[in-house]
Design a protein that fits this description.
alpha/beta, 36% helix, 408 residues, five-stranded mixed beta barrel, 4 domains, Transcription Regulator spoIIAA, binds iron/sulfur cluster, globular, Rossmann fold
Length: 408
């Protein structure tokens, strides 16, 4: 979501004549896009804000703004960080651009500086979330779910394709709950996917992140039926224990999750599935952790994002004692990581000698970089300009995180 916001902000600012710089001390405008999903992310925001304080002292004319999930009580934040010129809620891009227009009118010497369009783009199709996961601060900061109207999404994707985009990733906190906040009979995610499938020049469609309780057979069958919709699911499980899932407020059981994975794999053989796991949730016993370990070992996901639980202020889970010690959380995280490296190594090794289709995104450190429909990262060397092309690659090396190959 923050990447999507950043791309939109960059477009808006470049249309006003701004140019990006990587050195904050050279900037007229600094925008900090923030995340507070875990304590470590919030600590990073506070650290970065502290370093911007001296920048403001040296360059008082520079505007410093903060946007994203860090922004809760603006008054309290202004009192705590008086050198910040303005705070904006997550995805309040129009508010930010208006503020900049008002406070920093583009000087006559600024030239409109269009940003080169990437091959892949993020398109938020819904904002906010109607679930009540007890550990989650995101829903408190991003509010209730608001789905964008389908014609607006289609128009945006058409315009991206005209500018050279070949792959879009549809975004939502629960992308598969798209439309549930709209009047009855409104389109759902499957309808969005089918509408985008019709756009000529668009080659690939992805979507993330899916809530297991909102994933429907209609969506699964739609993915199975379209060559453009990538056979990849981001499906956070969070725990392999029913009691922990209940306390997390996740609204599914381990058996239901297993059945969902089975259904997806039955309808879309060869698809890839990524998941998220939290270790050290309050009260998580060794046996409950072991259940998560066993679930990952048996379902063999392509990717697992592992997080150590950290209490987030204002969330219901903070009423439970954070009783798994930090070193034990780290031990559990490391065990899952070791297991997943082994699984991902085996899954990717099965691609050795096979041919895969890669959409080439960019040239990176002497190699071209792209992804397969199943979201595998592939690198290859080639002297021709391959950016934005679909290339068939024969895989010659594999590792847990990426593949290497040669153009066929
Ligand atoms: Fe948070 Fe749960 Fe909503 Fe995801 S589904 S944003 S974890 S409340």
């Amino acid at each position: 979501m923050n990447d999507a916001d950043a791309a939109r902000i960059a477009q808006g600012l470049s249309a006003m004549g701004f140019q990006p710089t990587h050195q904050a001390e050279r900037a007229d405008l600094v925008i900090l896009l923030t995340c507070v999903v875990r304590q470590s992310a919030e600590d990073k925001v506070v650290g970065r804000l502290s370093s911007l304080k001296s920048l403001k002292r040296q360059h008082p004319h520079a505007l410093i703004t903060v946007m994203g999930c860090f922004v809760d009580d603006e008054q309290a934040l202004s009192a705590r960080f008086p050198y910040v010129d303005a705070f904006f809620k997550p995805s309040d891009i129009e508010g930010l651009l208006q503020f900049v227009r008002h406070s920093l009118p583009a000087a006559p010497h600024y030239q409109t500086h269009p940003i080169a369009q990437a091959v892949c783009a993020y398109v938020p199709i819904s904002y906010g979330c109607d679930h009540h996961c007890t550990y989650c601060i995101v829903r408190l900061r991003r509010g209730k779910q608001r789905s964008r109207p389908l014609p607006e999404i289609v128009a945006e994707v058409r315009s991206l394709v005209q500018r050279g985009v070949r792959e879009v990733t549809l975004l939502g906190q629960n992308v598969d709950a798209y439309g549930q906040d709209l009047p009855p009979g409104a389109p759902d995610l499957a309808d969005v996917l089918l509408a985008l499938h019709e756009i000529e020049g668009l080659w690939r469609i992805r979507f993330l992140t899916s809530h297991p309780a909102d994933m429907s057979l209609k969506i699964i069958k739609t993915v199975a039926s379209s060559s453009k919709i990538c056979p990849h699911f981001e499906l956070p499980v969070q725990s392999g224990d029913d009691e922990i899932l209940r306390r997390m407020g996740r609204r599914y059981t381990v058996a239901q999750y297993r059945e969902l994975v089975r259904t997806i794999r039955e309808h879309i053989p060869g698809c890839s599935i990524a998941t998220d796991v939290i270790v050290g949730f309050p009260g998580e016993s060794e046996a409950q952790f072991q259940a998560t370990y066993d679930l990952l070992a048996s379902l063999r996901f392509d990717t697992v994002h592992i997080a150590k639980y950290s209490p987030r202020p204002g969330t219901p889970a903070t009423r439970l004692p954070d009783d798994v010690p930090p070193e034990e959380k780290e031990r559990r995280r490391a065990l899952l990581e070791k297991l997943q490296i082994q699984i991902a190594t085996e899954i990717n090794a099965a691609l050795l000698g096979k041919r895969v289709e890669v959409l080439v995104e960019k040239y990176h450190r002497g190699r071209w970089k792209g992804r397969t429909p199943t979201d595998k990262l592939v690198f290859f060397e080639d002297t021709t300009d391959r950016r934005g092309q679909l290339v068939t690659i024969a895989i010659t090396h594999s590792g847990p995180w990426s593949l290497l190959g040669k153009v066929v």
